[in-house]
Amino acid sequence: MKIGFFDSGIGGITVLNEALKMLPNEEYIYYADSINAPYGIKPKEVVKKYIYNVVQFLISKKVDVLVIACNTATSIAVRELRQVYDIPIIGMEPAVKYAVEHNKNKRILVTATDLTLKEEKFKNLVERVDSDSIVDSLALPKLVEYAEDFIFDKNKIVSYLRKQLEPFDLDKYGSIVLGCTHFPFYKSQFREIIPEHVKIVDGNVGTVRHLKDIMERSDKSFSSNRKLTFYYSGVKDEDNMILKKYLNILNLPEKTY
């Protein structure tokens, strides 16, 4: 089965990373729209045009299913895309529901991009599951820029996170939700500065499980001919070097890709 992955940039690689572990033998086409990243600080209508351009590109490659591995793109376009295209389209949203259901009398902090947090889709999600008003939110746009620029300097990232998290009494929180697919690249830096009892939650594994369920219900067979193609803003990365250096950050065994 041919699976299309799309993100505003390289953040969706954290989701692809889970897919390669759970579904290692499929054919994947990943499109990083990094020339237009970050999406989260741009006007909604501008971002929507970027999204449609990328999706049309992936449709032209005859993908069987599309994973929008981007919370921002999902929040502003997934409903319309499903009305336009007749293939399964899987979106992502911050794992607020999971965090609330597994919460133990603590508050929850959702981190994401500005645009994701402003969208009605996110507000409706919180309103639906947060009956006790325990969910707070925090935009962390710099993490997207750092990831796109391949900045993983521990001191720099920790310093940024400390400053952004300073207004929050983290002892009162039970979970931090990573509501942008770029953010899991920095799990270890989050872990360094938050109390041990605070869980770090993202939606990546759940998204891939959903993908697997859709594939199992499809009339198309699973593949045994693994292939991975990476496009960086429309340009094919012939040797997948960009992709590999980010997968290395995630410690994915090289034999997997």
Automatic annotation (TrEMBL):
Query: What does the record give under GO molecular function?
Result: glutamate racemase activity
Which terms are listed as keywords in the entry?
Cell shape, Cell wall biogenesis/degradation, Isomerase, Peptidoglycan synthesis
Enumerate the Pfam families for this protein. Answer: Asp_Glu_race
Q: In which pathway does it act?
A: Cell wall biogenesis; peptidoglycan biosynthesis
Q: Which reaction does it catalyse?
A: L-glutamate = D-glutamate
Q: Where is the active site?
A: 70 (proton donor/acceptor), 180 (proton donor/acceptor)
**PANTHER family reported for this sequence:** GLUTAMATE RACEMASE
Q: Identify this protein by name.
A: Glutamate racemase
| Gene that encodes the chain | yrpC
